[in-house]
Design a protein that fits this description.
Elements lengths: L1 E2 L8 E7 L4 H9 L7 E9 L2 E6 L2 E6 H4 L2 E5 L3
Antiparallel strand pairs: 1-6, 2-3, 2-6, 3-4, 4-5
Length: about 80
C-alpha cells in the first residue's frame, strides 16, 4: 500500500484508507464515493500541486497534500 501521490499512472488502484485528513475533507471524499474497496485510476501525478484521478467515471483533482493521505494498492489481476 502506498499514498496516491506515489502510485503508478494508468493502473487500476483500490482505495484502502485515509491517512491524516481533516474530517471535513474526509467527508467530502466519502460523499463523492471514495470508500474502501473502490477502484480509482490515477490520471496525472503531482503536477502544479494537484493530483487528478478517475472515480466512478468522474475526474477528481486534489491538492498534493490531501492526495498524499489517500492510501491505495494496485488491483491484483
Amino acid at each position: 500500500m502506498s499514498p496516491l501521490t506515489k502510485a503508478r499512472k494508468d493502473v487500476t488502484l483500490v482505495f484502502s484508507a485515509f491517512g491524516n485528513i481533516v474530517e471535513r475533507e474526509r467527508q467530502k471524499l466519502i460523499d463523492l464515493g471514495l470508500v474502501p474497496g473502490e477502484n480509482i485510476k490515477l490520471l496525472h501525478a503531482p503536477c502544479n500541486g494537484y493530483v487528478t484521478f478517475l472515480l466512478k467515471g468522474s475526474r477528481i483533482a486534489l491538492d498534493k497534500k490531501v492526495a498524499g493521505e489517500i492510501i491505495v494498492r494496485e488491483e491484483l489481476k
